[in-house]
Specification:
heterodimer; A: 491 residues; alpha+beta; seven-stranded antiparallel β-sheet; five-stranded antiparallel β-sheet; 18 strands; globular; B: 353 residues; eight-stranded antiparallel β-sheet; 17 strands; 25% strand
C-alpha cells in the first residue's frame, strides 16, 4: 500500500489539511517525510504521519483546529537543531514545519525591538539590526542555523547569557496559536503585562503549550569593543576556583568558558587556535562594553587570574586574535566529531563552586564506563557540556555512553544543579526528570500543560514524563510493599 | 520552622475542607494593590530566615517571611544587591516582594524581578510542597513555574522559599540632572538607550530629567563627560533614587488615584497636561489624579501597553485591564491547576476567583 494511503487514516485529516494548504505544502510520501524524522539528536528517529508547511498564521490556526477536532497530535519544528529530541515527530501525528515563517516583520531601532516570524534564524536578527548599531544578545552555538521560534521553545542560551541573559530575558512578546486554533499573545512591547506571566511559561516549554507564530525580541546596542583573555591552568580545580574568584570580585564577564585538556587537544588539532596544550584546563574570559570599561575590566581580570595561579595569560590584541581564541571553543563539537565516530553531548548545570568536583567525578565515570569524555563548559553559569565519545556501531558502547550521560545528569542534580541548562528535556532526559522532580511537581507540570492544551495534543510525550514512566525508570521507592499510587498501571 | 510549616499545611487543609479562603500576607506593605483578598489572614512572617547565601554563586535563598531589608543589608555587606531594586513600601517580606512582582528603576537594563527569580518552594492549594527551578542560572527542566509566581499576588500558592539571583554593586555611580520637557526627555532617553552608555536609571518629572550612570569607573566618567548635565552629590543622588523607588518623591505626595502605565518606551506623552513621572527610559509612566473621564486602560492599550490603577480610592472597583478571552481562560485554568478550591487570595487579581 502506498504511504499516502497509510497517511490518510480515514479521518479526513489529509483532506482537511489540503483544503487550507497548497498541495506542495502537505507531504505524505515516505521520501518527503524522511528529512523530518529527527532533530539534532539523531539517536531518536520517527517518521511522522504527515508534514505540513504553512506560511500564514491563519493556516496554522486551521491546521491546529483540524488536528484538535480529530484528536491528532501535532509536533512543531523550526530548523531542527534541538539536541534533546524535542522536535522528534509523532508516528500518528502532524509535523508542523515552520520554515516558511522567515520574515523579519519590522525592526524599530528607536524602541530597540525586532518583530520576527519564528522561522527567522537567530543570527539573521543581529544581522538585520546591525545597520542600526543594535544586536540580539542570546547566541546559542547553532545561531547560524537555529531559529528564534526554536530558541523560545527551548529557552536557548549561549556564551553571552552570563551577562545578557537567556532567551526568556530577551523576548518581549510571543504571538502563538493554541491547539484549538485560537490566537493568543503573551507579553507586550511594554515591559510589564497584566496577568500571570504566560511568557515565562512559553519560553522553554518545548512546543507543548502553543505554536509560536511571531516573536518580538529586545535589541541591545552593539558593544563598542570586546577583548578576550585566555588563561591556562595546571589544575582543573584551580581553574574552577578562578571562575568563582572573578564573580566574587564583582565582575560579570560577557563570556566565561572553560575547556579541559582533552577538549583543548581535540580542537587544537582541528582549528590551530594556538592553545597551550600542556594546560590541564584553559579559561576564556571576555569583556565587552565601552573602550574604557573593557580596558579597566581586562586589567582586573588578568590580575585576578594571576593571583589564582594561572600558568599563562594571553590577552587578545586585536579582533582577529579574539576570534581565534573563540574559534577553538566554538569548534569543540566538530572537533569531537573528528576524533570519534560518535559523541553524546550532555547539558547539566551545577553551582559554579562545584566545577572541580564534577570534573573529578566525570574522570571516575570515564574509568567506570570505559569511554573517553571531553569537557567544555559555560563555566560562568555552571552549564556543562561533557562530550562522551563512543562508536554507535557498537551497541554496547552506545549503551555505555547513554548510561554515562545519565550518570552525569543525575550527579548534576546531586550537586544542587539541574539536568538541562539550555538543550531541553525532549525525549532524551525524560528519565532524569524523575530524578530531579518528585511526583507532586511532575503532576503540576501536567496540570500546567492542561491549562493550555487540555487534550494533550501538542508535542505529546516530551519534556515531562508520566508517573508511570518514572516508576519504570527505577526510582520508585516501595516501602514495606506499599506502592505509592497503586491505582496506576505499571511496567 | 518545621512547626510553622506544619501549621501552614494544617491551615490550608482546613481551609479546603471548610471552603473558606485565606489571605496570604507577609508584611502587608502592598496590600493596597488589586482588590482586597477575602478570608482569614495567613501571616508568613514566622517562616523567616536566610537559608543560604553564596556570593560567588550570585544566589541568595531565603524563607518567604524574611524581611526584604534584612536581605538587602546582608547583600550590601558583600557589595552585592538585588539588581531589580524592588520597592518595600514599608516592612516588605521577600515572599511578598516576589508575589507583587514589582521592579524599580534599574528594570530596563537589569531585568525585572521575574528575571532574577531562580527558584521557589511553595505549598499549592492541596497543601502539597512543591519545588521548582533552583539555585543555578540556567535551568530549563520542566516549565518555568518559578517565574510564574512573580506578580501572581499569592493567588497560585503560598511561597515558602525563594532563590534570587544577585549582582555585584557597580563600582561607580553618578547622577546627572537635565532640564527638559517630557517630549524632549522621551526622545533623548530612547536615543541614548540605543547607544553603549552605562545608563541604569532615569526619572523625568516636572521638567527635570534625572539620569543614573553606573559601571566601571572609566566608563561612567567618559559617559558623564559626553552627556553633560548637572551632577548631583553622592548623598543627594542616593536619596533621590531611594525616594523614586519608595514613592517618597514629591510627585507622589497627597495622591488620590495613581495610575501605573506600562507602554513601549517610544509611546507619545499621555495626558501631557497632567502631573506625571516617567521611569524606565520612557516605558513606565505614573499619572497622578488624571481626569476621571479619561479611559487610561484604552489609551494604554492603543499605545501597545497596559494601565493599572496602582493606588486608588475606596470607590474605585476596576484596577487592571481585561485580558482577551483566550488568555483569561488559560489564566483561570492555571489558577485551578495550582489552587483547585480557590482558597488563596480569592478575588485579589480577578473577581471571579
Amino acid at each position: 500500500m502506498p504511504s499516502s494511503k497509510l497517511a490518510s487514516g480515514g479521518d479526513g485529516l489529509i483532506e482537511a489539511l489540503r483544503a487550507v494548504l497548497p498541495e506542495d505544502s502537505v507531504l505524505v510520501e515516505t521520501e518527503a517525510l524522511r528529512p523530518y524524522e529527527c532533530d539534532g539528536l539523531a539517536t531518536f528517529r520517527q517518521l511522522p504521519r504527515v508534514v505540513v508547511l504553512p506560511e500564514t498564521e491563519e493556516q496554522v490556526a486551521a491546521i491546529l483546529a483540524s488536528c484538535h477536532a480529530r484528536g491528532v497530535p501535532v509536533v512543531a519544528r523550526g530548523a531542527g537543531t534541538s539536541l534533546s529530541g524535542g522536535a522528534m515527530p509523532h508516528a500518528q501525528g502532524v509535523l508542523l514545519a515552520m520554515a516558511k515563517f522567515r520574515q523579519i516583520v519590522r525592526i524599530d531601532p528607536l524602541a530597540r525591538i525586532a518583530v520576527v516570524q519564528p522561522g527567522v534564524r537567530n543570527k539573521a536578527i543581529s544581522e538585520a539590526a546591525n545597520p542600526y548599531g543594535l544586536y540580539y544578545a542570546p547566541d546559542p552555538s547553532s545561531q547560524i542555523a537555529c531559529t528564534i521560534g526554536g530558541n523560545v521553545a527551548e529557552n536557548a542560551g549561549g556564551v553571552h547569557c552570563l551577562k545578557y541573559g537567556l532567551t526568556v530575558h530577551n523576548v518581549l512578546r510571543v504571538r502563538a496559536v493554541t491547539i484549538t486554533g485560537e490566537i493568543v499573545e503573551f507579553g507586550s512591547h511594554a515591559l510589564d503585562t497584566p496577568g500571570f506571566d504566560g511568557l515565562a511559561l512559553l519560553n522553554g516549554s518545548e512546543g507543548m503549550l502553543a505554536v509560536i507564530t511571531e516573536v518580538s525580541v529586545r535589541l541591545l546596542p552593539l558593544p563598542q569593543t570586546a577583548r578576550c583573555v585566555l588563561a591556562a591552568f595546571d589544575d582543573v580545580v584551580r581553574a574552577g576556583e578562578a571562575v568563582a574568584a572573578i564573580i566574587a570580585a564583582g565582575i560579570i564577564p560577557a563570556g566565561l568558558e572553560m575547556m579541559d585538556q582533552a577538549a583543548t587537544r581535540a580542537v587544537e588539532a582541528f582549528v590551530k587556535a594556538g592553545y597551550p596544550l600542556a594546560a590541564a584546563a584553559i579559561l576564556l574570559v571576555e569583556s565587552d562594553g565601552t573602550a574604557e570599561e573593557v580596558e579597566e575590566e581586562i586589567g582586573r581580570i588578568t590580575d585576578l587570574l594571576q593571583a589564582q595561579g594561572a600558568s599563562e595569560i594571553r590577552v587578545s590584541r586585536d579582533e582577529a586574535e579574539r576570534l581565534r581564541f573563540w574559534a577553538g571553543r566554538k569548534a569543540a563539537f566538530p572537533a569531537a566529531g573528528r576524533i570519534s565516530p560518535d559523541y553524546y553531548c550532555m547539558d547539566g548545570t551545577i553551582p559554579r563552586k562545584r566545577l572541580g568536583e564534577m570534573l573529578q567525578a566525570i574522570a571516575a565515570m570515564e574509568q567506570r564506563h570505559r569511554l573517553r569524555c571531553i569537557n567544555v563548559f559555560h563555566a560562568g553559569d555552571g552549564n556543562l557540556h561533557p562530550l562522551i565519545l563512543f562508536d554507535a556501531a557498537s551497541a554496547d558502547e552506545q549503551e555505555r555512553a547513554e548510561a554515562f550521560g545519565a550518570e552525569i545528569l543525575e550527579h548534576s542534580v546531586a550537586l544542587g544543579g539541574t539536568i538541562t541548562g539550555e538543550h531541553g528535556v525532549g525525549v532524551e532526559k525524560l528519565g532524569q526528570m524523575c530524578v530531579q522532580f518528585g511526583e507532586a511537581e511532575l503532576e503540576m507540570f501536567h496540570r500546567v500543560k492542561a491549562a493550555f492544551d487540555p487534550v494533550g495534543l501538542l508535542n505529546p510525550g516530551k519534556a515531562v514524563p508520566t508517573l508511570q514512566r518514572c516508576a519504570e525508570y527505577g526510582h520508585l521507592h516501595v516501602h514495606h510493599g506499599q506502592l505509592p499510587h497503586p491505582e496506576l498501571e505499571r511496567f | 520552622m518545621q512547626a510553622v510549616l506544619a501549621g501552614f499545611k494544617e491551615r490550608i487543609r482546613a481551609a479546603r475542607v471548610a471552603g473558606l479562603p485565606l489571605e496570604l500576607r507577609g508584611g502587608g506593605s502592598k496590600r493596597f494593590l488589586g482588590r482586597a483578598a477575602q478570608g482569614e489572614i495567613l501571616d508568613t512572617r514566622d517562616y523567616s530566615g536566610v537559608i543560604s547565601y553564596e556570593p560567588t554563586e550570585l544566589v541568595i535563598t531565603a524563607r518567604a517571611g524574611t524581611p526584604l531589608a534584612e536581605i538587602q543589608a546582608l547583600l550590601a555587606r558583600k557589595r552585592q544587591m538585588l539588581a531589580f531594586e524592588p520597592p518595600a513600601f514599608g516592612l516588605a517580606t521577600v515572599g511578598g516582594t516576589v508575589a507583587a512582582g514589582l521592579s524599580g528603576p534599574r528594570r530596563p537594563q537589569a531585568g525585572a524581578l521575574r528575571d532574577h527569580l531562580l527558584g521557589v518552594k511553595l505549598l499549592d492549594g492541596r497543601g502539597d510542597e512543591l519545588r521548582f527551578g533552583g539555585q543555578v542560572m540556567k535551568n530549563v527542566a520542566g516549565y518555568d513555574v518559578s517565574r510564574l509566581m512573580a506578580g501572581a499576588m499569592g493567588t497560585l500558592g503560598l511561597l515558602l522559599e525563594v532563590s534570587l539571583k544577585v549582582l555585584p554593586m557597580p563600582a561607580e555611580q553618578r547622577t546627572l540632572r537635565f532640564s527638559m520637557s517630557q517630549s524632549e526627555a522621551l526622545v533623548a532617553l530612547n536615543r541614548w538607550a540605543g547607544q553603549a552608555l552605562p545608563i541604569t536609571a532615569s526619572c523625568w518629572s516636572g521638567g527635570v530629567l534625572h539620569l543614573r550612570l553606573e559601571g566601571a569607573r572609566a566608563a561612567v566618567q567618559a559617559a558623564r563627560a559626553r552627556l553633560g548635565g548637572e551632577e548631583l552629590g553622592e548623598a543627594a543622588a542616593i536619596s533621590f533614587w531611594r525616594d523614586v523607588v519608595e514613592q517618597h518623591h514629591g510627585f507622589f505626595a497627597g495622591v488620590r488615584r495613581l495610575w501605573r502605565i506600562s507602554v513601549p518606551s517610544t509611546a507619545a506623552p499621555m495626558c501631557a497636561d497632567q502631573p506625571s513621572l516617567i521611569e524606565w527610559g520612557g516605558a513606565l509612566r505614573w499619572l497622578r489624579d488624571p481626569p476621571p473621564e479619561t479611559d487610561l486602560f484604552a489609551e494604554a492599550a492603543r499605545l501597545g501597553g497596559s494601565a493599572r490603577l496602582f493606588r486608588r480610592t475606596p470607590e474605585d472597583e476596576v484596577f487592571d485591564p481585561p485580558l482577551t478571552p483566550s488568555v483569561a481562560q488559560i489564566q483561570e485554568r492555571l489558577k485551578r491547576a495550582f489552587d483547585p478550591d480557590g482558597i488563596f487570595n480569592r478575588g485579589r487579581l480577578c473577581a471571579a476567583w
